[in-house]
Amino acid sequence: MPNIKSAKKKQRKDLNKTKQNDKYRRSIKSMFKDMKKGKVAKVTQKKLNSIIDKASKRKIIHKNKAARLKSRVSRFLKLKKKS
């Protein structure tokens, strides 16, 4: 437990930031699950790419991971259209 006032403030800020970061991670994860279950109407490639880009821009996920996720989305939806 921090004793210094600025350390207490940083702890509060970190807690809020963690909540926001988790929100982005959960939304990406849940959209991927929806996509794989077949709820494609709910999940569009544009929407999912937008969320991934925002998370990457805010340094929540690494830029290479963002590129990999976007690639997987496009590949999955392309295969879905063929079948």
UniProtKB/TrEMBL annotation:
<dbReference type="GO" id="GO:0006412">
    <property type="term" value="P:translation"/>
</dbReference>
<protein>
    <recommendedName>
        <fullName>Small ribosomal subunit protein bS20</fullName>
    </recommendedName>
</protein>
<keyword id="KW-0689">Ribosomal protein</keyword>
<comment type="function">
    <text>Binds directly to 16S ribosomal RNA.</text>
</comment>
<dbReference type="InterPro" id="IPR002583">
    <property type="entry name" value="Ribosomal_bS20"/>
</dbReference>
<keyword id="KW-0687">Ribonucleoprotein</keyword>
<dbReference type="InterPro" id="IPR036510">
    <property type="entry name" value="Ribosomal_bS20_sf"/>
</dbReference>
<keyword id="KW-0699">rRNA-binding</keyword>
<feature type="region of interest" description="Disordered">
    <location>
        <begin position="1"/>
        <end position="25"/>
    </location>
</feature>
<feature type="compositionally biased region" description="Basic and acidic residues">
    <location>
        <begin position="13"/>
        <end position="25"/>
    </location>
</feature>
<keyword id="KW-0694">RNA-binding</keyword>
<dbReference type="Pfam" id="PF01649">
    <property type="entry name" value="Ribosomal_S20p"/>
</dbReference>
<dbReference type="GO" id="GO:0003735">
    <property type="term" value="F:structural constituent of ribosome"/>
</dbReference>
<dbReference type="GO" id="GO:0005840">
    <property type="term" value="C:ribosome"/>
</dbReference>
<feature type="compositionally biased region" description="Basic residues">
    <location>
        <begin position="1"/>
        <end position="12"/>
    </location>
</feature>
<dbReference type="GO" id="GO:0019843">
    <property type="term" value="F:rRNA binding"/>
</dbReference>
<comment type="similarity">
    <text>Belongs to the bacterial ribosomal protein bS20 family.</text>
</comment>
<dbReference type="GO" id="GO:1990904">
    <property type="term" value="C:ribonucleoprotein complex"/>
</dbReference>
